[in-house]
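Note to self: keep these together.
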Amino acid sequence: MEYLKLGELKLKMQEGVISFNEKIGYSYAKHEILEGKPVLQATGEELSEISLQVSLYAYLGDDIPAIMTQLDKMCFSGEPQKLIFANGVFKGDYCIISRDTTINRTDGIGNILSSTFSLSLLEYANRVLINTRNCERKSQSENSNRKVVVK
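Structure:
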């Protein structure tokens, strides 16, 4: 059974997703004032960070070198990958920031029998223009509605 999909990489339950950690936050600017405590000004959401830890086993049919090569290609492409859970929930677009691999066991000639890897993902947020500045220009023949007061 498929547990999650990151881009074209599908991770099944048998691969053993050991942990799934997510860090979200909101940013604030701190402004010092002359008397009293500083004041905070909300500046917006931070990017979501996800850490995945997965175990792979050759005896379960995992092609460990191929999975690592696929992860490396995804990481070095710099392209965001869609993160989708097995129940169809789209989590968002994420970039692979880093991969940390531990080889737990090999056979006598160096074939990897079991491995654990950690992925660090960072949310990819397209730049969306929230508000545009509306400017209107009047033709030079139109009179201005500004009033000048002289005292």
